[in-house]
Design a protein that fits this description.
Helices cover 62% and strands 0% of the residues. By secondary structure, the chain is mainly α.
Length: 181
């Protein structure tokens, strides 16, 4: 997670130094050529305040998600990035541009909320409950339409992507064994 955050900050430094030349790689809705920007947009931000607002929750939630394994976490994040970006591409207002890792933050939140129940692991259920207690109310407001400067669409589809990823990458428990370990 530290490496990923370093990348996000380095990209914002490059973007600022270049007069915000990287901002063009955000997602513009329903333009076929913009589908190529669905993935890069999750790594770009519109200023230092924007990347800073995603840093701490991304670090914490990403670390917790990575406890189940780096490869699994990378696959979960890939699903979230695609769900969030495609959701923005399909539903964001015309003539807008969206970028940022907040869709990933919301996706990791959704993933952590349901992972323990899907995997039937007590420790992961506890993590989900703690994540819900710490981030729950602020996250739930973030998926509702409100501030026109914030892509609630990316948040909502990121959250959905995280829940879907929990089911896609659930740990299969062999029949006749306990789920407690």
């Amino acid at each position: 997670m530290a490496g990923w955050l370093a990348l996000l900050w380095a990209l914002e430094v490059i973007d600022t130094a270049s007069g915000h030349a990287l901002d063009q790689y955000g997602v513009s809705p329903r333009e076929i050529g913009e589908l190529r920007d669905v993935v890069p947009s999750a790594f770009l931000h519109f200023g230092y305040d924007h990347v800073a607002s995603n840093t701490v929750p991304l670090l914490i939630l990403g670390f917790l998600a990575a406890l189940s394994g780096i490869r699994r976490c990378a696959a979960v994040v890939a699903v979230i990035v695609l769900a969030s970006g495609l959701g923005e591409w399909l539903t964001a207002p015309a003539n807008s541009i969206s970028a940022g890792a907040s869709g990933v933050v919301f996706g990791l939140f959704g993933y952590l909320l349901v992972r323990g129940f899907v995997d039937r692991r007590a420790a992961d259920i506890v993590i989900g409950v703690v994540v819900a207690a710490v981030y729950g109310s602020s996250m739930l407001w973030g998926v509702l339409p409100g501030d026109t400067e914030v892509s609630w669409q990316g948040h909502l589809f990121g959250l959905i992507g995280g829940v879907v990823a929990a089911f896609l990458f659930r740990r299969r428990i062999p029949i006749g064994t306990s789920a407690g370990g």
